[in-house]
Design brief:
Blueprint: E1 4-8, E2 13-17, H1 25-39, E3 43-46, H2 51-60, E4 68-69, E5 85-90, E6 100-104, H3 105-119, E7 126-129, H4 136-147, E8 152-155, H5 158-163, H6 165-169, E9 177-180, H7 182-192, E10 206-209, H8 216-226, E11 236-238, E12 240-241, E13 248-250, E14 258-263, E15 276-282, E16 313-315, E17 325-329, E18 342-347, E19 364-366, E20 369-379, E21 382-388, E22 392-395, E23 398-401, H9 402-413, E24 420-427, E25 430-437, H10 444-456, E26 461-466, H11 482-490, E27 498-500, E28 509-510
Helix pairs in contact: 1-2, 3-4, 7-8, 9-10
């Protein structure tokens, strides 16, 4: 059995928790015990091999119950009338302990209709996915969407995709739909390279792309390599969503190319207009963004290795779907005009009722909606997302986002995106930025520092922490656990790392 299952008897609600993968056992026990404490689960179900570990989790959660070992006796039970709550969907815990989002059947029904509508699902369509089913994008976007229309689904485990990404891609000789983070396309392009041309991707119509910041260069590199296999960039449906809204908030309409804009990051001030330096359309593998006057601009090209500067490019995530309201608001909750940077607010039937057991978080529930804690802006009716407001800091009077700093490091050094993470710290001792990287020391350190210094100025301390694979701690959805890594560094718990520069490491708190 690949997961631990929870069941709240009499409530009609099940939950799935992933087994330990690469996390340390003590860390896994603490994380999972926190979930059990919130759910007050009546029964905890596991496989025989995971029973000893599950017992330790139960003990850490303060329960004297023994885990129930899954056995199939071949008999079917009678279906029961479902309760209002469909599932507790736990947030990934990128900035705090996970919280259970209360998703009702009505929320689920509305969000599945929104996703299917964006995909333009047809009779006879099929899907393919490798995403874990304990994550909202895997469970709702990849599994329940085809299941809700009784369609076929090619399903594989995440480790099968990691071992052989072509196994997933071969499905698209028949399958039309999938959902995946940008990492999937970056990883497949890196592992397969020119061999992508040997595949048959002719049936592939849609790929919902989300769950992490979307770098247009990553998508374009895969599209260019896969073009001979029949892949079109129009397959990409960059989207925005969050667990508190069940899953999807915006999903692009199938077959419509996504717009791109190049932002002057020096203009990013909350509540103020965003300066757009260039615009383009992600329509073909020969995509060239414009220089702002409608003509192609050769020095701003996205995704062509070694050609031009791709920094600052964002890709549109569509507009709100049917029945969903998405606006950008200022600190006081007042709507901002198009082109102004603010916090994304969401309303509609997919918005859940709150966190289980009275928990709170950076996403704030309001009357009929949620303030997401994500920063973004609308441009020509299209939503562009910059990142978590808690993952930014002030430099020279403007907002600087950690995802943007990571993109600059990747561009300057060639480090794989998943092997680095940037953490910003603001405190009484000053403001600092720490770059964590899974890479041996070398000339790249100076290149990374120069890139960060160019974005931040001279008055912010920069620390570089280098180590082996596993240094970048991640959530179940692949997001870097920035706060956790910084706390581990401050407490001296990171082993076999080298710290280059230590200013402000022990003061302040991560943003």
């Amino acid at each position: 059995m690949s997961v631990v299952a929870l069941r709240r008897l009499g409530r009609g609600c099940d939950g799935l928790i992933p087994p330990p993968a690469f996390a340390a056992e003590a860390e896994y026990v603490e994380h999972t015990a926190g979930i059990l404490e919130q759910t007050a689960a009546a029964v905890t179900i596991t496989s025989e091999g995971l029973a000893p570990l599950t017992a330790r989790v139960l003990a850490a959660a303060g329960s004297d119950r023994e885990p129930w070992i899954w056995r199939d006796d071949g008999d079917e039970i009678q279906p029961r009338e479902p309760g209002e709550l469909a599932l507790l969907q736990f947030t990934s815990g990128s900035s705090s302990r996970p919280r259970g989002v209360r998703v009702t059947w009505a929320n689920l029904h509305a969000n599945l209709a929104l996703i299917r509508g964006g995909l333009g699902w047809r009779e006879g369509d099929a899907g393919a996915s490798w995403l874990p089913l304990h994550h909202d994008m895997g469970l709702i976007g990849a599994l329940l969407t085809p299941v809700s229309v009784q369609a076929d689904l090619w399903l594989m485990r995440p480790e099968q995709f990691i071992r052989d990404p072509a196994r997933w891609l071969r499905c698209f000789a028949v399958a039309a739909h999938t959902a995946a983070p940008p990492f999937a396309f970056e990883y497949a392009a890196r592992r397969l390279g020119d061999r992508l041309a040997d595949l048959d991707l002719s049936a592939w119509r849609n790929a919902i792309v989300g769950a992490e910041p979307i770098d247009p260069r990553v998508l374009e590199r895969f599209a260019r390599l896969a073009a001979p296999a029949g892949f079109s960039p129009a397959v990409y449906l960059p989207s925005y969503g969050l667990a508190e809204a069940t899953l999807a908030v915006t999903v692009r309409t199938s077959g419509t190319p996504a717009p791109t804009v190049r932002v002057d990051t020096r203009s990013l001030r909350f509540g103020r207009p965003v300066a757009i330096d260039g615009e383009g359309e992600f329509a073909s593998s020969a995509h060239t963004p414009s220089d702002g006057d409608g003509e192609g601009g050769g020095d701003g090209e996205v995704g062509r290795d070694g050609e031009g500067d791709g920094d600052g490019w964002l890709i549109g995530c569509g507009g709100p779907g049917d029945g969903v309201g998405a606006t950008v608001v200022d600190d006081g909750g007042r709507p901002l005009p198009d082109g102004h940077l603010g916090e994304i607010e969401v309303t509609g039937p997919s918005v859940t009722s709150g966190y289980h057991a009275g928990r709170t978080g950076s996403t704030r529930f309001t009357e009929g909606g949620i303030r997401t804690g994500d920063a973004g802006f609308f441009h020509r009716g299209e939503l562009f997302v910059l990142g978590r407001m808690g993952d930014s800091l002030k430099a020279r009077g403007r907002s600087v986002y950690m995802e943007d700093l990571e993109a600059k490091v990747v561009s300057a050094t060639g480090i794989a995106r998943e092997r680095c993470a940037v953490v910003g710290v603001e405190g009484t001792g000053g403001t600092s930025v720490t770059l964590f990287a899974e890479k041996a020391e070398g000339a790249w350190v100076e290149d990374a520092t120069v890139a960060l210094r160019g974005a931040l100025g001279d008055d912010i301390a920069i620390t570089v922490v280098i180590g082996h694979s596993g240094l970048i701690r991640k959530t179940s959805s692949g997001k870097p656990r920035r706060r956790h890594m910084w706390e581990q560094l401050r407490a001296g718990r990171l082993k076999d790392v080298r710290v280059l520069g230590t200013a402000h490491v022990t003061t302040g708190r991560p943003v």
